[in-house]
């Protein structure tokens, strides 16, 4: 009888043990899942795109963009490309030590590349291109001995290329183009086999891969020069003092620039003739012309000859970064010339990279940068001249007033220019200084992006109440406290044309360059 009872009890006991184990483990999320949730929490507005990444779900293998090994259930593939994700890349991704592919390209990630990614020793593909990543390329990436594909192009990375990357013997694709990298390219190891296109768009690089001889430089070695390098190498726990010093140094530099701008404008007003004569001195000291659009019928000699004739009578403005002149050619064509004094070699290289990006843009609602004159002491930027002046001047310094339709036309034009910068440029461009003085107008009062007492101007004629309500609704959404609730610039243009303007959207909007 006892044996019979034992026979019946054994299946029941086994079932109970299995059920107990399931209950114990059912609510516990795996370490890989915890790392992914930490990554999600660092992303702005992640609740929309990564809404299915929840701590209540203990199995991350079913989450969007995540692929796991069938046997071990470890995360081996993370792909979130083209998702418009914004925020820093969490260092906790380095805990995914079985990860083989990490694809986060064409998003809006910013900050440093985490050095902890060097712990993902099974990584075969690292795709971070098309973001806003800054700082240096971590030395720790040289630990990824299985890496075959490394693409960090079209970011804002600085410093030099780590020598450790030359040890990656399995690399078949390598791309660091369109950054702000400087210094020699490692001349030994796997990086010697890649073409110059892998390094293009980095004015400060040198090496045999790009046929650019390196000058003898006794300066600091890789990833150890300047505040950006300190930020790139040191985390919060490792270099807190450096981070603090860098932050104060940045604030101090900004205050110094503001003081210099004020003092420069004051000196110009008092000694304007000395300023104008310095342009002639700049050009006469040896200058070269760099043109971005080959549609100007002038030789470099013709342009330099005209620059030498500029005086204080040609000054049309004193901006935050330099004095602006009006340049008239012999055939009657007019251009705006902005003079920017060089600070140091590092700034010069950084600035040339910025000019290359801006010079590649051509759009109806963006001021066209035609080229620049490079002299030993300054850069003279050549823009299209817009006779309408700035929106700030029209609103506050002129007797004639803009009616409601003209103002709406200016608003939509500025929105289209910003939408093009945000969504159609590669890398994407954030203006960061939109104000009425940086919105220029052509002769037809059409706006182009350059650099409250009452809701409505009492002098504005033709106001439409419905249109104003719709416009304010768009404005309120743009300043929402929740980033995920703010519309993109493409969406802003759609709202302006469908709700604020006439019922029929304008026919000339095209986000592509003209």
TrEMBL record:
<dbReference type="InterPro" id="IPR000719">
    <property type="entry name" value="Prot_kinase_dom"/>
</dbReference>
<keyword id="KW-0808">Transferase</keyword>
<dbReference type="Pfam" id="PF08263">
    <property type="entry name" value="LRRNT_2"/>
</dbReference>
<keyword id="KW-0472">Membrane</keyword>
<protein>
    <recommendedName>
        <fullName>non-specific serine/threonine protein kinase</fullName>
        <ecNumber>2.7.11.1</ecNumber>
    </recommendedName>
</protein>
<dbReference type="InterPro" id="IPR017441">
    <property type="entry name" value="Protein_kinase_ATP_BS"/>
</dbReference>
<keyword id="KW-0812">Transmembrane</keyword>
<comment type="similarity">
    <text>Belongs to the protein kinase superfamily. Ser/Thr protein kinase family.</text>
</comment>
<dbReference type="InterPro" id="IPR013210">
    <property type="entry name" value="LRR_N_plant-typ"/>
</dbReference>
<feature type="signal peptide">
    <location>
        <begin position="1"/>
        <end position="28"/>
    </location>
</feature>
<keyword id="KW-0418">Kinase</keyword>
<dbReference type="InterPro" id="IPR001611">
    <property type="entry name" value="Leu-rich_rpt"/>
</dbReference>
<dbReference type="Pfam" id="PF00560">
    <property type="entry name" value="LRR_1"/>
</dbReference>
<feature type="transmembrane region" description="Helical">
    <location>
        <begin position="243"/>
        <end position="268"/>
    </location>
</feature>
<keyword id="KW-0723">Serine/threonine-protein kinase</keyword>
<dbReference type="Pfam" id="PF13855">
    <property type="entry name" value="LRR_8"/>
</dbReference>
<keyword id="KW-0067">ATP-binding</keyword>
<dbReference type="InterPro" id="IPR011009">
    <property type="entry name" value="Kinase-like_dom_sf"/>
</dbReference>
<keyword id="KW-0433">Leucine-rich repeat</keyword>
<feature type="binding site">
    <location>
        <position position="342"/>
    </location>
    <ligand>
        <name>ATP</name>
    </ligand>
</feature>
<keyword id="KW-0325">Glycoprotein</keyword>
<dbReference type="GO" id="GO:0016020">
    <property type="term" value="C:membrane"/>
</dbReference>
<dbReference type="GO" id="GO:0004674">
    <property type="term" value="F:protein serine/threonine kinase activity"/>
</dbReference>
<keyword id="KW-0677">Repeat</keyword>
<dbReference type="InterPro" id="IPR032675">
    <property type="entry name" value="LRR_dom_sf"/>
</dbReference>
<keyword id="KW-0547">Nucleotide-binding</keyword>
<feature type="domain" description="Protein kinase">
    <location>
        <begin position="310"/>
        <end position="514"/>
    </location>
</feature>
<dbReference type="GO" id="GO:0005524">
    <property type="term" value="F:ATP binding"/>
</dbReference>
<keyword id="KW-1133">Transmembrane helix</keyword>
<keyword id="KW-0675">Receptor</keyword>
<dbReference type="InterPro" id="IPR050647">
    <property type="entry name" value="Plant_LRR-RLKs"/>
</dbReference>
<dbReference type="InterPro" id="IPR008271">
    <property type="entry name" value="Ser/Thr_kinase_AS"/>
</dbReference>
<dbReference type="Pfam" id="PF00069">
    <property type="entry name" value="Pkinase"/>
</dbReference>
<keyword id="KW-0732">Signal</keyword>
């Amino acid at each position: 009888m006892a044996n019979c009872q034992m026979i019946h009890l054994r299946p029941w006991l086994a079932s109970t043990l299995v059920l107990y184990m399931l209950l114990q483990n059912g609510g516990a999320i795996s370490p890989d899942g915890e790392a992914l949730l930490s990554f999600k929490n660092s992303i702005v507005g992640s609740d929309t795109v990564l809404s299915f990444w929840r701590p209540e779900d203990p199995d991350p293998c079913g989450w969007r963009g995540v692929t796991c090994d069938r046997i071990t259930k470890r995360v081996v593939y993370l792909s979130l490309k083209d998702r418009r994700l914004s925020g820093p890349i969490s260092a906790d991704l380095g805990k995914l030590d079985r990860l083989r592919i990490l694809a986060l390209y064409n998003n809006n990630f910013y900050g440093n590349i985490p050095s902890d990614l060097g712990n993902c020793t099974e990584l075969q593909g690292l795709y971070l291109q098309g973001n806003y990543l800054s700082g240096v390329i971590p030395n720790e990436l040289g630990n990824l001995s299985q890496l075959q594909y490394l693409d960090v192009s079209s970011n804002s990375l600085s410093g030099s290329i780590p020598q450790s990357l030359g040890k990656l013997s399995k690399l078949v694709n390598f791309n660091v183009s369109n950054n702000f990298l400087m210094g020699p390219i490692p001349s030994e190891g796997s990086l010697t086999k890649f073409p110059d296109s892998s390094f293009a768009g980095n004015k400060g690089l040198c090496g045999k891969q790009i046929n650019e001889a390196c000058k003898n430089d006794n300066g600091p070695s890789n990833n150890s020069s300047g505040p950006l390098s300190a930020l790139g190498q040191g985390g919060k726990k490792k270099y807190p003092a450096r981070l603090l010093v860098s932050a104060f140094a940045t604030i101090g530099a900004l205050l110094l620039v503001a003081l210099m701008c004020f003092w420069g404008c004051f000196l110009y007003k008092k000694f304007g003739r000395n300023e104008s004569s310095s342009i002639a001195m700049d050009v006469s000291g040896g200058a070269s012309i760099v043109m971005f659009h080959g549609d100007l019928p002038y030789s470099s000699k013709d342009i330099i000859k005209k620059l030498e004739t500029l005086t204080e009578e040609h000054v049309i403005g004193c901006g935050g970064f330099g004095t602006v002149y009006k340049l008239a050619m012999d055939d009657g064509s007019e251009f705006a010339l902005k003079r920017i004094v060089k600070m140091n070699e590092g700034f010069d290289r950084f600035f040339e990279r910025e000019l290359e990006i801006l010079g590649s843009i051509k759009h109806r609602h963006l001021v066209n940068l035609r080229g620049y004159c490079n002299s030993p002491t300054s850069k003279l930027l050549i823009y299209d001249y817009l006779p309408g002046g700035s929106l700030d001047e029209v609103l506050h310094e002129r007797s004639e007033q803009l009616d409601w339709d003209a103002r709406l036309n200016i608003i939509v034009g500025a929105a289209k220019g910003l939408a093009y910068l945000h969504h159609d440029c590669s890398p994407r461009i954030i203006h960061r200084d939109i104000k009425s003085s940086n919105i220029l107008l052509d002769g037809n009062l059409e706006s182009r992006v350059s650099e409250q007492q009452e809701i409505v101007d009492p002098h504005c004629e033709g106001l439409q109440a419905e249109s104003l309500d719709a416009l304010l609704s768009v404005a309120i959404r743009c300043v929402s406290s929740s980033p995920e609730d703010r519309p993109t610039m493409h969406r802003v243009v759609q709202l302006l044309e469908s709700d604020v303007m006439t019922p029929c959207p304008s026919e000339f909007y095209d986000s592509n360059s003209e």
